[in-house]
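Quick bug: H/ACA ribonucleoprotein complex subunit 2 output formatted oddly.
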Amino acid sequence: MSESAGTITDTHLLLLRTFSDSRAAWPIADGQLAQLTLDLVQQASHYRQLKKGANEGAFVQKQLVVNGETNCLSPTATKTLNRGTSEILILAADTSPLAILLHLPLLAEDKNVPYVYVPSKVALGRACGVSRAVIAASITTNESSDLMPQIRELKNKVERLMI
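Here's what came back:
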């Protein structure tokens, strides 16, 4: 199904609402890049190269449960960044409150790991293969994986988006 030029889709509305609600969620993937990102997340989940959650202490764990997002699974996106095994970090732009994620972009920049926000935590959860919303996911390193060319391509696109 193709969309005619000039039509506003639900994804566009979500992107606009997310941008107006929180300018801290940057860079946000557009529709095509978001779909490519979520497809790669789904493949990484099948290859066991995906870590879900944003665990940073008991407060965040409690906050995640209260807001209905996924409980922190171990190892989490934070742990993969600290260990140097993260290739790319994917965050949900509609996280509420967004402050529970804001330590991750800083950590990713310190570790030279590209990161991108996708519009929906529910879509990220589905791509991760879980029935709950997921606010952060990390695709991990595995040089012998069949996914490495796709991961490199996504990293390049995200890095261009960040410029």
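Actually, after a second look the formatting is fine. The two ends are 32 Å apart (CA to CA). Closing.
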